[in-house]
Amino acid sequence: MSNNGRFTAKVRADGTLAGDSVVGSIHQVGAKLEGAPSCNGWTYWCFKRDGKRVLIDQLRKQIRDEMVAV
């Protein structure tokens, strides 16, 4: 879901997003849905964890930290 809760999208097998007849990167889809020239998809898209919205950027950071710790 978008950080403002207005849009939802699904991650496709190839890693792109699909939402409201728009397919592309996390950045492209966010920009298109908002009617903006660009969008930082990492801070635009989020998911719910324990009932709270979490930016996908936080998930990316968590995974990176876990990979470094190994």
Plain-language structure description:
The structure is a single chain. This protein has one domain. The protein is 39% helix and 23% strand. It is built from 3 helices and 5 strands; from the N terminus they run βββααββα. It has helices at residues 26-34, 41-44, 56-69, and strands at 10-11, 17-19, 22-24, 46-49, 52-55. A 3-stranded antiparallel β-sheet has the order 1-2-3, with helices on one face. Strands 4-5 form a two-stranded antiparallel sheet. The chain is globular, with a radius of gyration of 13 Å. The mean pLDDT is 95.
Feature tags:
single chain; 70 residues; alpha+beta; three-stranded antiparallel sheet; 3 helices; 23% strand
In DSSP terms (H or I, runs of 4 or more residues), the helix count works out at 3
Distance between the termini: 31 Å
Main structural class: alpha+beta
Low-confidence stretches: none
Name the shape in a single word: globular
**What order do the strands of the largest sheet run in, or round the barrel if closed?**
1-2-3
Strand content: 15-25%
Report the C-alpha radius of gyration, rounded.
Answer: 13 Å
What is the helical fraction, as a range of percent?
25-40%
* Number of DSSP strand runs: 5
> What pattern of helices and strands is seen along the backbone?
EEEHHEEH
Instruction: Summarize the biggest pleated sheet.
Output: 3 strands, antiparallel
Total number of distinct structural domains: 1
